[in-house]
Amino acid sequence: MNRMSVDDKLGTNMFRVDEEHAHITIKQEKVDHKEIHKLLLACPAHLYTLDEEGGLQFSYEGCLECGTCRVLCGKSLIKDWDYPENGKGVLYRKS
To answer: Within a domain: residue 1?
Structure first.
C-alpha cells in the first residue's frame, strides 16, 4: 500500500474562491509580532506571510477552513473569521 504525504493529499483539494468576499480578514493596525509568529508556524496551508516591511499578509484563496488562526490568535490578529458562502471554499477530495 502506497502512502500519500500530507502535501500530496492537500494537493487533491479543490477551491472555489469567492473573489468578492474574503471570509477571513486580518488587522493591519499595531500587531504583536509574537502573535504573527504563531500564525506563520501554525497555518497548515502556509497562507500567512510577512511582506518586505514586516507587515502581515494573508491569502484566503487556499484556506483549509480549519480555524487554527482563529483559535491561536482570536481577536489579536483576526478581524473577522467566517466560513465562505455556501458552495465556496475548500472542497476536500478523497484520494
So the answer is: no
- Residue 41 maps to a domain: yes
Q: Is 36 exposed, middle or buried (0-12, 13-18, 19+ CB in 10 A)?
A: buried
User: Can you give the residue range of the structural domain that contains 52?
Assistant: 6-91
Least Cα distance to 48 among 68, 29, 19 occurs for 68
- CATH code of the domain containing 58: 3.30.70.20
Q: Encode pLDDT of 35-48 as tens digits.
A: 889 889 999 999 99
Query: What are the residues whose beta carbons fall under 8 Å from the beta carbon of 45, sequence distance 6 or more?
Result: 10, 62, 63, 64
DSSP assignment letter at 53: T
Residue 85 belongs to a domain: yes
81 has which bridge partners?
24
Q: What is the pLDDT of residues 4-28, one digit of tens each?
A: 787 787 778 888 888 888 999 998 7
Q: What is the model's pTM? A: 0.78
